[in-house]
Each structure stands twice: as structure tokens, then as C-alpha cells.
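Sample pair:
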Amino acid sequence: MAVSDSAIVTRLRAAGCVFAEDEARLLIAAARTPAELDAMVGQRVAGLPLEQVLGWAEFCGLRITVAPGVFVPRRRTEFLVRQAVVLVRPGDVIVDLCCGAGAIGAALAAAVEGVEVYAADIDPAAVRCARQNLPADRVYQGDLYAPLPAVLRGRVAILAANVPYVPAREIGLLPAEARAHEPRAALDGGADGLDVLRRVAIGAAAWLAPGGYLLSETSDRQAWMAEAVVTASGLAARVARSPDLDATVIIARRPSSE
């Protein structure tokens, strides 16, 4: 590694970056000029998430465009995608609700041929990113189901809702990168972390096709409560866990006949 590269590693390590060498390589590869590299390193040292500095996050083998102020896709959420891939079929309609940058929808579109992916988020910055990762005319801005085309009601095979689930009182315990550089609306799930999931669950049956699935990430300690929330909405729910990714997903199915 050249002297200048070593200097970058030193700056990153001093700022608390655990994987300073790896981050340095990514920043050097992304920068087009020395001045741009210096600015990017400065942003990272100041606490901006690496993905927002680079302009992309790796997710399910894809490069997902992200921007400052937009929720960064988490590696644990790849477990939700894996669970959905098992359930989805070619030609199915998929909705990525609370889509953020659209990582889940993009990953499912890449994994299963011929699916129709739609997405929605309330955050304008997230929607702008999602429109770079998904067909722009299928990404909508608004609150939960409100902006989705009415024609999708009763046709959705997979409803992936990566809702915020951090209890409001615990937001202050999150890493500084999340607290300072991601929208609170993408993190704060209300008093018990389940406020948004409740709203999603209430509307899910109307949008899901008979036999369709709602998948939503939660924490392991909230799983039993989250399962009860979706069961109360008339869906048959179960919990899937991945110790390796520290991921927990609620998988709920609308009955085939009602």
C-alpha cells in the first residue's frame, strides 16, 4: 500500500472505522481525483456512513444506489429476501413497502424472472434513490398503501414491508451513523416498535392475493408480539430466524379462501 493509502487508513482507523483497510480500498477505487478522494475520506471521518459516501450499498450481490440521508440497506435484510424467493413465482406481483432505496424489490427482481415489482416510501429522498434501482414508473411516494395503484388491490403475491421497528426510547442507543445520517422515520417504530407494522397488517389482506404473503423484519425479542399483530389482522403467521445474520422475519399468509 502506498504512503498516501496508508495515511488514509490511519485517518479512518483514528475515526473508529473497524475495517479501515477495506474502506480505504473502496474509497480509493471510487474517487476520480485526489481532491475527490480527500473529500470522501473527510466525509467518512466525519461519520457519514460508508455507503452514503460511496453512493451505493452492496445487497444480495447488487449495488444499490443510496444517497446521504437515505436509510442504508442492512445485510441482515438479505434473510427476508431469501425467505421471499422461496415463496415467489415468475410473473408474481411484488410490493416493496417502506422501500427505502428499493433494495428488497431490486433483489427479488434480480432473483426471480418475470416478476412485477412495485415500491413505495414516504421519504422523497428514498424514492429518488429507489427510482434508480427499480423501474422509475413503479416507485411511488406516499404513506404505506396510499400511493399504490388501486389495480394492485387483491393481486399482490409478496408484500415485503421492512418497517421501522426500533422502540422510540431506544433510538438513542443506535450507532451514531444511523442516528445522525438516516431518517428517524425509517428507524422509529413507536413506543413498542410495532406501530407501523400494525398499520401495514391492518391493510395487508386487502392488497394481498388469496394465498399471498406479507414478510416483515423485526427483532428477535419483538417476534412474538409482531406475530400476534399480524395474526390479529386475519393472516396466518410464523417466525423465521437466521442466527448467522442476526435476522428475524415474520412471514404471514392470507388464506387462499375466505
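The beta strands are 56-59, 62-65, 93-97, 116-121, 139-141, 156-161, 208-218, 236-242, 247-253.
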